[in-house]
Every structure is written in structure tokens, then in C-alpha cells.
Design goal:
With 417 residues, the chain is α/β, with parallel strands linked by helices. Helices cover 36% and strands 27% of the residues. Helix 1 packs across helix 12, helix 4 runs parallel beside helix 5 and helix 7 packs across helix 8. The relative contact order is 0.13. The protein binds NADPH dihydro-nicotinamide-adenine-dinucleotide phosphate and L-homoserine (HSE). One of its GO terms (molecular function) is homoserine dehydrogenase activity.
Length: 417
């Protein structure tokens, strides 16, 4: 089976390297050689292991290619290219979650008579797509909760363990090949949202766009939040959450305070983990490297092996289910909240804050005032609330921002119990 690699970066080069290194084992497992014959990149690479070209037509025109592996990134261009390839009834494998979050269903439809694999698009090397489509196919999925972005988890872990500075750790994650070409996708939560939408689409048939769901990233998490979390036995993690609530689907991606004894709280570094609650099996947890060339290559090649095994007509590929589910309105999210705000240290400020909270049906569970340093005229206050609706907390934070005694921004994080 001859393959073309569209994109010879972190993942593309790791796929080629692994196919060549493990070629005998791969052949033994699928009874066919999988040979990378050509790759596409913008810049030519003298040390590449296979010929590289920078003209897409040179690759697409080759009649001898059986499978095209898209590892370029982006949305519009890969959509155009993959659509063309699938219409020619050639198989495609991709790791491109941004593309899939917008166009998976259209592409699955085009792939009716051929294979379209995307195991590598969610959680790097963890075979979570296969788990949902196959291993858990007898279950109604009650909830999916996952650490889905390796870069964010790496940053939060290093900030917690080593008191490292956000920008320095982000740079390290980029050097290690974990981050997206534009790291905003990682630190503002979009990448995790793309992955959550793929999982929610498989589990619930829900077809919504990233714009429709609540997305927040780790960029605003500060040393002070880490300090509070440690004091009160929490760990801060970035989670994607999909769950059935009142016959609707709640979908959200944001940092959370998680009790430090929870299993997801112990997942550190670039590791990802996904907890799936099924009505038959109960809770099961999947853990492994979530980003980086090798981890992703492992999943890309698993799809290639399935294609070589001619599994293209099985349940692995081609998976579209329709749904009667609707998305839960963001305002109806009901949980506990953490608030951090800097205020002038003067009489009456605390009572004004608690008054605003009670006006919006918000009740305090925990309160901490961080002792201020000498010569500072403001103090940092931390609150944890009892459960309330998202609508209430959004109005409260807006009202707090308007107060003359509040300095800087008011930061809010949800608690995941
Ligand atoms: P890189 O930026 O390292 O590599 C992208 C490759 O595609 C480069 O070789 C680049 O060329 C080439 N390329 C990009 N645009 C074009 C274009 N218009 N024409 C020709 N070549 C192009 O990205 P990654 O390898 O990290 O990621 C690739 C895909 O895999 C993305 O969709 C990403 O989201 C996904 N992914 C990445 C993971 C990771 O851990 N890195 C994990 C899971 C999925 P050049 O080298 O000349 O710049
Ligand atoms: N940038 C992504 C991450 C790559 O950090 O998780 C894996 O999808």
C-alpha cells in the first residue's frame, strides 16, 4: 500500500520515521507493506527520509497512491484537498481536529465507498475514537470528561509542580512539538473544544460548531489560583465536558478546580486522560500521551493498518449517527464556582461584595483573603460558591467589574465535583 504524506512537520516526519523503523512488524500485522513514497511541505527538506515536494498537484496527480495522510493543519485548504481525494474514492487519514470539528460529517458522507480515518485527531496516541465507536458501542454515553489538550496540561502541571512561569512553559511545549502551529488554539481552549466536538458527535450525533459552546483556555490561570488550589486541596486542570442533562447535551471546555484525589487530577505533563461513563459499563478511564510526533504517529499508523487490513467497510470507518439531542443553553450550566478578585483594602468592601452575591442568589462556601504585602493598597480575595446557575455568576462577575473598588479583572473558574 503506497501512501503520500501531506505535511512533513512534527507528526508527518514521525509517521514516516515509524513506518520505516517498524516496517517488518507492520507488514506482519496487516499482511501488506505500507510504504511512504512522497511528502508535501512548503519548504523542501534536504534531510527528509522520503522525497519532498512543495506542489500539491504533484502529489494528487499520482495514480499509484492508495492512501493520503493529511498532516498539514488548517481548515479550508485541507477540506478542499480531502474532498477531492475522497471523491476519487481514495482513502484518507488525518489528525486534523480543527478540520473535523467543522467538516467531519460532510467528509464522512463523501467517504461512503472508501476509508476516512482520524484516530489521531483526539488525545494523541490514546485510541479513544475506536473505544467510543467499538468497545463502548453497547452503551448510552452518560458523560465524557477529558484532559484533551497536552500543551495546557503540560503548562498547568509545570506551574503547579515547579512554580514555572506560563510563557516559559509554553515555549518549552512548542519546542517539544506539543503545541499547535498557532498556540492560541491550545491556550485559549479551541483545540480541546475541537476534540470534544468530535467525541460528542460520535457519542451523541450532536452536530454543533465550536462557536456554539462554552470555551475558555488556561491563559488566565495565575500563580495565585495555583496557590489557592494547593491551600484547599484542589488541582487545576483543563477539561472538556460532555454530558446528558435534562435530555439535552451540556458541552463545555474550560479550566476547573478538581479535588486533588480525583483520578483526572493526577494526570500530569503532556498526558491526556478521558473518563467515559456508559450506562452499561459505568465509568472507564483512558490515559496516555496526548501530543507530540511519536504519540500521534502511533494513532495515524493504526488507521493505516486498519485500511491495509481492508477494514474500510466495518464500523471503524464511516460512522454517522443522527440525534434528537439539543445543546443545553450555557446559562443553564449548574455548578460551583471559584472567584478571584483584587479589591481596595478598605471598610465596607467585603460587605458590598457579599450583598451583590446574595442579590444574584449566590451563596458562599469558602472564603480566603490573601495577606497583602506592605505598601500595597489592594488585597486578593478568593471565594468558592455553592452551586448556582452560570447565568447568575456571569451577571455577578459583570457587576463586580463595574465596582470602583475592584482592581484588574475578576477571574472565575468552575469547580468539577
Ligand atoms: P507542523 O506545523 O509541525 O507541520 C505541518 C506541515 O505541513 C509542515 O511540514 C508544513 O510545511 C506543511 N504545510 C502546512 N501548510 C502547508 C501548505 N499550505 N502547503 C504545503 N505544506 C504545508 O504541524 P504538526 O505536525 O504538529 O501537526 C500537523 C497536524 O496534526 C495538525 O492538524 C495538528 O493539529 C495535528 N496534530 C498535531 C499533534 C502534535 O502533537 N503536534 C497531535 C495531534 C494532531 P513546512 O515544514 O514547510 O512548514
Ligand atoms: N496541540 C495539541 C495538544 C496536539 O497540545 O494537545 C495534540 O492534539
Amino acid at each position: 500500500m503506497k501512501i503520500a504524506i501531506l505535511g512533513y512537520g512534527t507528526v508527518g516526519s514521525a509517521v514516516v520515521e515509524t513506518l520505516l523503523k517498524n516496517q517488518d512488524l507492520i507488514k506482519a500485522r496487516c499482511n501488506e507493506e505500507i510504504i511512504p513514497v512522497i511528502a508535501l511541505a512548503r519548504s523542501l527538506k534536504p534531510n527528509a527520509l522520503i522525497p519532498i515536494v512543495n506542489d500539491i498537484d504533484e502529489v494528487l496527480e499520482r495514480e499509484d497512491i492508495d492512501v493520503f495522510v493529511e498532516l498539514m493543519g488548517g481548515i479550508d485548504l485541507p477540506f478542499e484537498i480531502i474532498s477531492k481525494i475522497l471523491k476519487r474514492k481514495k482513502s484518507v487519514v488525518t489528525a486534523n481536529k480543527a478540520l473535523l470539528a467543522y467538516h467531519r460529517c460532510e467528509l464522512e458522507k463523501l467517504a461512503q465507498d472508501t476509508a476516512f480515518g482520524y484516530e489521531a485527531s483526539v488525545a494523541g496516541g490514546i485510541p479513544i475514537i475506536k473505544i467510543l465507536k467499538e468497545g463502548l458501542s453497547a452503551n448510552n454515553i452518560v458523560s465524557i470528561k477529558g484532559i484533551l489538550n497536552g500543551t495546557s496540561n503540560y503548562i498547568l502541571s509545570k506551574m503547579t509542580e515547579d512554580s514555572a512561569k506560563f510563557q516559559e512553559v509554553l515555549k518549552k511545549a512548542q519546542d517539544l512539538g506539543y503545541a499547535e502551529a498557532d498556540p492560541t488554539f491550545d491556550i485559549e481552549g479551541f483545540d480541546a473544544a475541537h476534540k470534544l466536538l468530535i467525541l460528542a458527535n460520535i457519542a451523541y450525533g450532536l452536530r454543533v460548531k465550536p462557536e456554539d459552546i462554552l470555551i475558555e483556555g488556561v491563559s488566565k490561570v495565575s500563580d495565585e489560583d495555583i496557590y489557592f488550589a494547593k491551600e484547599f486541596e484542589y488541582t487545576i486542570k483543563h477539561l472538556g465536558i460532555a454530558k446528558i442533562k435534562d435530555e439535552k447535551i451540556e458541552l463545555r471546555v474550560h479550566p476547573v478546580m478538581l479535588n486533588k484525589d480525583k483520578m483526572l487530577a493526577k494526570v500530569d505533563g503532556v498526558m491526556n486522560a478521558i473518563s467515559v461513563d456508559g450506562d452499561v459499563l459505568g465509568e472507564s478511564l483512558y490515559y496516555g500521551p496526548g501530543a507530540g510526533g511519536k504519540a500521534t504517529a502511533s494513532a495515524v499508523i493504526a488507521d493505516l493498518i486498519d485500511i491495509a487490513r481492508k477494514e474500510k467497510n466495518s464500523a471503524i470507518f464511516g460512522y454517522l449517527n443522527d440525534t434528537s439531542y439539543e445543546l443545553l443553553n450555557k446559562d443553564e450550566i449548574y455548578t460551583r464556582y471559584y472567584l478571584r478578585l483584587k479589591v481596595l483594602d478598605k471598610i465596607g468592601v467585603l460587605s458590598k461584595i457579599t450583598h451583590l452575591m446574595s442579590e444574584h442568589q449566590i451563596s458562599i462556601d469558602t472564603f480566603l483573603q490573601k495577606p497583602k504585602k506592605e505598601k500595597q493598597d489592594y488585597s486578593t480575595l478568593f471565594f468558592i460558591t455553592h452551586q448556582t446557575y452560570e447565568k447568575n455568576i456571569q451577571i455577578l462577575t459583570q457587576r463586580l467589574r463595574e465596582q470602583e473598588f475592584v482592581k484588574d479583572d475578576v477571574f472565575m473558574m468552575r469547580i468539577e465535583d
